[in-house]
TrEMBL record:
Subcellular location: Cytoplasm, Cytosol; Cytoplasmic vesicle; Golgi apparatus, trans-Golgi network membrane
Protein name: AP-4 complex accessory subunit Tepsin
Domain ENTH per the UniProt entry, residue ranges: 30-132
Keywords, comma-separated and alphabetical: Cytoplasm, Cytoplasmic vesicle, Golgi apparatus, Membrane
GO cellular component, one term: trans-Golgi network membrane
Membrane topology: Peripheral membrane protein
Domain of life where this protein originates: Eukaryota
Main localization of the protein described in the UniProt heading: cytoplasm
Cited Pfam families: ENTH
Annotated Gene3D superfamilies: 1.25.40.90
Organism: Chelydra serpentina (Snapping turtle)
């Protein structure tokens, strides 16, 4: 079994995908590979995308889960913080899809890698801690 793939997410309609493309700069800014925290207004913008339409909600989740696969601690941490914010502000559809794909978050919870020259292992610990906070999502069937 290779890496997780998001095959459980249905393909979103093309017009939703095209609409979503215009949101990518916002998302890339919110999950940039640096230690500048994601500004509060971006969390709100990103949560709004999930309410636009079921298709854009899907595109958003796909994008965030793809970003979560990034090897950068900064990116993982920002994505996890956005996902945490989405737990209270995202659309109900986004949350349902997130629950189905919670294995991605569990993978981040055991994330480790070579110590950072500047931060040592502290960033990995932050990522794991953020992932564990995001993981007690109610499981389907509970």
């Amino acid at each position: 079994q290779g890496g997780m793939s998001a095959e459980r997410i249905m393909a979103a309609p093309l017009r939703d995908r095209l609409g979503f493309l215009s949101q990518l700069p916002t998302l890339m800014k919110g999950t940039s590979d640096d230690d500048i925290p994601c500004p509060g207004y971006l969390f709100e913008e990103i949560a709004k995308i999930s309410h636009d339409s079921p298709g854009s909600s899907q595109c958003l989740l796909e994008h965030l889960l793809n970003r979560l696969q990034n090897n950068s601690c900064h990116v993982k941490l920002k994505v996890l913080k956005i996902l945490l914010y989405m737990c209270t502000h995202g659309s109900s559809q986004f949350l349902q899809q997130l629950k189905r794909n919670s294995t991605f978050i569990q993978e981040a919870a055991v994330f480790a890698g070579p110590p950072d020259p500047l931060h040592g292992n502290s960033l990995y610990q932050k990522v794991r801690a953020a992932a564990q906070v995001g993981d007690p999502l109610p499981r389907p069937g509970h």
